[in-house]
Design goal:
By secondary structure, the protein is of the alpha+beta class. The protein contains seven helices and six strands, in the order H-H-H-E-E-E-E-H-H-H-E-E-H.
Length: 192
């Protein structure tokens, strides 16, 4: 016996949270026109809305940043074709960094979010783990993806990470130079 699209939709809707729609529409549907004729458009549109919501609510199972891929279900990591073996803490650290790609992540943020610390210890815990993770992800012949931002924290970018930081450093240097060259308002005239 072949199943119609309506029967498949009703079966898919039989998940928790959509049981009441399943009871309204029933499992004996033969096609969508039968549902429309028996129940009107309200219940049918509720069924379609519930199915669409289930599609929207499905969480992302793979994270991508440049050539780096993290599979959250299989708990695997790859950079290009190369497989990366990660310890559980390294996996959580990389997942957090990939979800916040392009942002500077401070050591305090990482201790709070990855290690779930309520206080900030005076230790190099983050630096040690970040060094191990960096050695596994950034091989010598590959462009670096995890970069240290001096006195701030760490940042994860795609393949062009070095150029992004170089541009930021150039802008900062240009502002500092402009501030040095700008005339000081408190200087007496002719002091230059």
């Amino acid at each position: 016996m072949t199943r119609t699209v309506a029967d498949q939709m009703v079966e898919a809707a039989a998940a928790p949270g959509v049981d009441h729609i399943y009871r309204i529409v029933g499992d004996g549907l033969t096609d969508l026109t039968d549902a429309l004729r028996r129940h009107g458009g309200v219940e049918l549109s509720a069924l379609i809305e519930a199915l669409a919501q289930r599609v929207v609510d499905t969480p992302e199972t793979k994270l991508h940043v440049g050539s780096l891929e993290l599979d959250l279900i299989e708990r695997t990591a790859k950079r290009g074709d190369r497989s990366i073996d990660l310890l559980p803490r390294e996996f959580r650290l990389l997942e957090y960094m990939m979800r916040h790609k392009g942002r500077v992540l401070t050591r305090e943020m990482l201790l709070r979010e990855v290690w779930k610390y309520k206080f900030i210890p005076k230790s190099n815990l983050v630096d040690v783990h970040m060094g191990r993770l960096r050695r596994k992800i950034d091989w010598p012949h590959e462009p670096p993806m995890i970069l240290n931002v001096r006195r701030q924290g760490f940042i994860l970018h795609g393949e062009g990470a070095e150029s992004v930081l170089t541009q930021a450093r150039r802008r900062k240097a240009a502002r500092a130079t402009a501030a040095l060259l700008a005339p000081d308002m408190n200087m007496p005239p002719g002091a230059l």
